[in-house]
Amino acid sequence: MTASSGKHSRTSNGKAHSTSEATNMIRTAIYTILDVLVFLGVSLGYCIQDWYFMIFGMPKKSLKGELALVTGGGGGLGRLLALRLVRAGSSVVLWDINQDGLDETTKLVQSIGGNCKSYIVDISKKEEVYKAADQMRKEIGDVTLLINNAGVVSGRVLLDTPDHLIERSFNVNVMAHFWAAKAFLPAMIQRNHGHLVTIASLAGQVGITKLVDYCSSKFAAVGFDEALRLELEYLGVKGVHTTCICPYFIQATGMFEDVYSRWVPTLKSEDVADRIMLSIRRNEKLVIVPSYLKFMLALKWIFPWGCIAGFLKRLVPDASPQHGVQPTETKAMINNNVPPAPLLHRKVKSDLMCNGTNNESIGINGPMNVSESKASQTTPILVQRSISVGERVH
Ligand SMILES: NC(=O)c1ccc[n+]([C@@H]2O[C@H](COP(=O)([O-])OP(=O)(O)OC[C@H]3O[C@@H](n4cnc5c(N)ncnc54)[C@H](O)[C@@H]3O)[C@@H](O)[C@H]2O)c1
């Protein structure tokens, strides 16, 4: 082989290479265009389906024969949902840390002929969730409808929120959703039948002052629902649905009883419970209550921050008025230029609040009083603190 023929073959190789590269590029471009066209066509189909449902109503599934687990079923929304679920023909299991609340709900459910069992479970503790799930599976069967409803709120500005309350917000409002899903999803996937409901909040869509830990845990819960739904679709699991509920403030459940809200009226808990039931029966994905607030959320991504902040400050001037009056450390820092306390010192304060450990539950009548009295001897932040209704944790 001569040098010139080697050169020639290299040139023809190079030409062949560039031809195949060009063919690949054209093929990729055609695939991408086709993919975009398919996406647009399917999206249009979904929009038309949605408009059709809006006009003629969405199909509703029956909840007869489902085994529903409602966390936080000892009161508030959880109790209202339990009553509606048994009326719809489901059997209900309740988890809560409030024994009296559980007894009351069980009595009410049984008084209307419902099938109901309750367990004391502190869902902020992974081991308790797994243990209770195993016990339930043995005693009753596999859960087919999981309603992650239990929630807590601390209700104070971030720097006045003891560490353990921030951890508690995350443990109850979102981490527990992971543990419960891991416990109950496998059986749902196996049967290709199930429904996971995340009771998040509108505070999982927008930030609110004094709710930094609450909002961020609820944002996480919203993300949990959306990513899990997409993952189930990716895995080809068609029979397991997820629904995320984001209500505005609700009256009469206790959690945000004294919230100062303007422009949008606070919701009736019965109406919210009805809306949740409807959304489960319709397999809805994301439910904003009231629904007209969807438009506000859409505007959030369009308008400058000043407009959004102005709106939110007017909408909820104070999410937790009972924590707005004491001379807090944060205010002192802002007004008097007092240097912040070392973090270690703060941790000691929050540990005192927690009766010795960072993971313990606290209650109005129980350890909270003891730790409050201890804390009040040593910690100025907490001296005048009244217990948030959201801390009605026993
Ligand atoms: N009340 C509102 O204005 C409002 C608004 C939007 C969203 N939400 C959400 O709705 C859900 C229900 O709230 P609600 O208004 O009925 O409040 P609620 O305080 O009446 O009920 C919460 C229930 O959760 C239970 N709970 C708390 N910590 C627990 C734990 N570690 N383990 C097990 N159970 C625990 C409580 O004992 C209580 O029974 C919550 O997730 C809340 O964040 C409430």
Short account of what is shown:
The chain has twelve helices and seven strands. The protein has 394 residues and is of the alpha/beta class. The chain has a seven-stranded parallel β-sheet with strand order 3-2-1-4-5-6-7, with helices on both faces.
Task: Describe, in plain words, how this protein is organized in 3D.
The structure is a single chain. By secondary structure, the protein is of the alpha/beta class. Helices cover 53% and strands 10% of the residues. The protein has twelve helices and seven strands. A seven-stranded parallel sheet has the order 3-2-1-4-5-6-7, sandwiched between helices. Strand 5 (194-199), helix 6 and strand 6 (240-247) form a beta-alpha-beta unit. Helix 2 (76-87) packs across helix 7 and helix 4 packs parallel to helix 5. The chain is globular. Bound molecules: nicotinamide-adenine-dinucleotide. Nicotinamide-adenine-dinucleotide binds at residues 71-72, 74-78, 95-98, 101, 121-124, 149-152, 172, 199, 201, 247, 249-250, 253-256, 392-393. Nicotinamide-adenine-dinucleotide is lined by residues 71-72, 74-78, 95-98, 101, 121-124, 149-152, 172, 199, 201, 247, 249-250, 253-256, 392-393.
